[in-house]
Specification:
heterodimer, A: 331 residues, mainly alpha, ABC transporter involved in vitamin B12 uptake, BtuC, globular, B: 295 residues, alpha/beta, Rossmann fold, 2 domains, four-stranded parallel sheet, 9 strands, 12% strand, disordered N terminus
């Protein structure tokens, strides 16, 4: 029965994603008509519409889909693994770890010498943070895990502040506080090519954990009796999250709430089995980030809005609603 | 603690404040300070004041300059600035140096201001400059305050001669230029010294209509169709996020030989040498246009 409900949902999500993708190609500070965008897509040239669509808006939309899917899927997997509705890459310190790695790469000049340094250090930071959180929080139940995540987040943020303090460039603090809010503005295919391999590898790893997460839903002991190697599952989730979220964060900055929001948005339609949630959550994440990115361009502010601002503003009310609902459901 | 000013000064605190106020008044009045002995020990708390002092005075009359002048000043003056003591703008440094005159920017903190008043040290506030008239005004003001009127006048007449020569040979078709530092950074608008220097050099500031907006993105940059991209030099060599935005592959492909960096101390400070900066820029703009070929 659930499979029957899932197919139309997937179709709907894909259709919405395609529509938003087109809208994303149409929106920007320079007005281009649909016909101009279509021409630009079909034939490359050095004309303004072609340059804007092919070199600016297309990589931006592709990156939004990749990063959004990463956050949505990582959120769903982490919520399944921890059996906690609040889990997401940001809450477990992974995003701030990735940000620390990226900041180190940028302000030591490593990124200038070696473009690959930013995603690699970003995912190393994410890996370190995730490892630390899972080690500190092991065996203590979900509450301890969340607390450990908060502690690791704090540590990583302090490390970022220290790196900025010591950065030779006096603009560093301002720049990075903006950068940390997340943005897809002025991204190029270079960014896509840098991040995509890591993101895709991480997504595949995360997606492979579906069956184990379903078994974990019954409880750790039950899962082990079903032949699930828990240590292995944790390791796969750890590496998958670090790879995908680390690479995504190092290119776009830390974008909050999408990892939390996306799984909850699709759960009412597909039920609570973690495996059923994974693919729709990834699509919903891509959808949310694409919509937020279009919002940053269409809302009439002089300064381009940062993604983190928009996702935070829309995500917080949802978070509150989630808290209230949880209180009602679990007396 | 080894504060050079001791109890002797704090006794006459009120009198010191009065003297300082009188000194400031004197400096502000045209010709007022002329009758007095010019200050021998001058301290600067402002990068732009550094540039003016280096142009007007022999180094031995400068007690210290801001540490910024050692890296972010006019590149031609950096070696000279490195031979003079540097300050970081702290009150302790100012007190220890015992200057006869302190030159600061408009935004110098009130704490420093109060302290200078207590030690009876005259303070000259350097206003921000947005055009050639402003350069003439401020250069004369500082030259008078430090007793270097003749040098100041010579620098200004040199500036006016350079500007006149530039105006005579202005290209008929101005070079289309935008100054852009990468994602999220400001572009200089119409009422900036940058705009004046660029215009004198024979360029057209395409950023002017966009400058009201807080940021200019790549789409807008491309739409403006500049021939040359310019970029402030401040901290350009130090790693930063904005450098990555400016390194966008589209920029590198479309403007391989048409990216100029300019020393911000020369383009933002308001020194007579700005005319020479315009002269150098004229040559760079025309060379960039020639390298780009007809489009």
């Amino acid at each position: 029965m659930r499979g029957q409900r899932r197919a139309p949902l997937l179709g709907l999500l894909l259709a919405a994603l395609a529509a938003l993708f087109v809208l994303s190609l149409l929106s920007g500070r320079v007005w281009l008509s649909a016909a101009q965008v279509w021409d630009a897509l079909r034939s490359p040239s050095d004309q303004l519409p072609s340059l804007i669509v092919r070199e600016l808006r297309l990589p931006r939309a592709v990156l939004a889909c990749l990063v959004g899917a990463t956050l949505g899927l990582a959120g769903a997997v982490l919520q399944g693994l921890t059996r906690n509705p609040l889990a997401e890459p940001g809450l477990l310190g992974v995003s701030s770890g990735a940000a620390l790695g990226a900041v180190l790469a940028i302000y030591t000049g490593l990124a200038t010498a070696l473009p690959l340094a930013t995603p690699v250090l970003g995912l190393l930071g994410a890996f370190a943070a995730a490892l630390l959180t899972l080690t500190l929080g092991r065996g203590g139940g979900v509450l301890v895990l969340i607390l450990a995540g908060a502690a690791v987040s704090g540590l990583m943020l302090a490390g970022t502040a220290l790196a900025l303090n010591l950065a030779p460039n006096p603009y560093a603090a301002y720049e990075i506080s903006m950068w940390l809010l997340g943005s897809l503005a002025d991204k190029s295919w270079d960014h896509v090519l840098l991040a995509a391999p890591f993101i895709v590898a991480g997504l595949l790893l995360l997606a492979s954990t579906g069956r184990a997460l379903d078994a974990l839903g019954l409880g750790e002991v039950q899962a082990e009796s079903l032949g699930i190697d828990l240590a292995r599952v944790r390791a796969v989730v750890l590496v998958g999250t670090a790879l995908s979220v680390g690479a995504a964060t190092s290119v776009t900055g830390a974008i909050g709430f999408i990892g939390l929001l996306a799984p909850h948005l699709v759960r009412p339609f597909v039920g609570h089995e973690p495996r059923q949630v994974l693919l729709p959550a990834a699509l919903a994440g891509a959808l949310l980030l694409l919509a937020a990115d279009i919002g940053t361009r269409l809302l009439p502010f002089e300064q381009e809005l940062k993604l983190g601002v928009l996702t935070g503003l829309t995500g917080t009310p949802f978070f509150l609603w989630l808290v209230l609902r949880l209180r009602r459901v679990a007396p | 603690m080894s504060f050079p000013i001791g109890p002797a000064h704090s006794v006459s605190r009120g009198a010191g404040a009065l003297i300082a106020a009188a000194a400031c008044l004197l400096l502000a009045l045209p010709g007022g300070a002329g009758a007095q002995e010019p200050p021998r020990r001058i301290l600067s708390l402002n990068l732009c004041a550094d540039q003016l002092l280096l142009a007007l005075l022999p180094p031995e009359r400068i007690v210290s300059l801001t540490w910024l002048s050692r890296s972010e000043g006019d590149p031609d003056l950096v070696p000279l600035a490195r031979r003079i003591a540097a300050n970081h703008g702290t009150a302790e440094e100012v007190l220890a140096a015992q200057p006869d005159l302190v030159i600061a920017g408009t935004y110098t903190t009130s704490a420093t201001r109060r302290l200078l008043a207590r030690t009876a040290t005259p303070l000259l506030e350097l206003p921000a400059v947005q055009d050639w008239a402003g350069i003439r005004r401020v250069t004369r003001q500082v030259a008078r305050a430090v007793g270097a009127e003749a040098r100041g006048a010579a620098l200004l007449s040199q500036m006016d001669a350079t500007l006149a020569a530039l105006a005579r040979t202005r290209p008929a078709d101005p070079v289309r230029v935008i100054s852009w530092g990468g994602g999220g950074s400001d572009v200089p608008g119409r009422d900036t010294l940058f705009d004046q220097i660029l215009t004198a050099a024979g360029g057209e500031n395409l950023g002017a209509p966009l400058a009201g907006r807080a940021s200019v993105d790549l789409e807008q940059l491309l739409q403006a169709r500049p021939e040359v991209l310019m970029r402030g030099s401040a901290y350009a060599a130090m790693p930063a996020v904005r450098n990555q935005a400016a390194a966008h592959r589209l920029i590198q492909r479309l403007y391989p030989q048409a990216q100029l960096t300019y020393p911000e101390a020369l383009y933002g400070c308001g020194v007579p040498k700005a005319a020479q900066a315009a002269l150098a820029l004229r040559a760079q703009l025309l060379a960039a246009r020639a390298a780009r070929g007809p489009r």
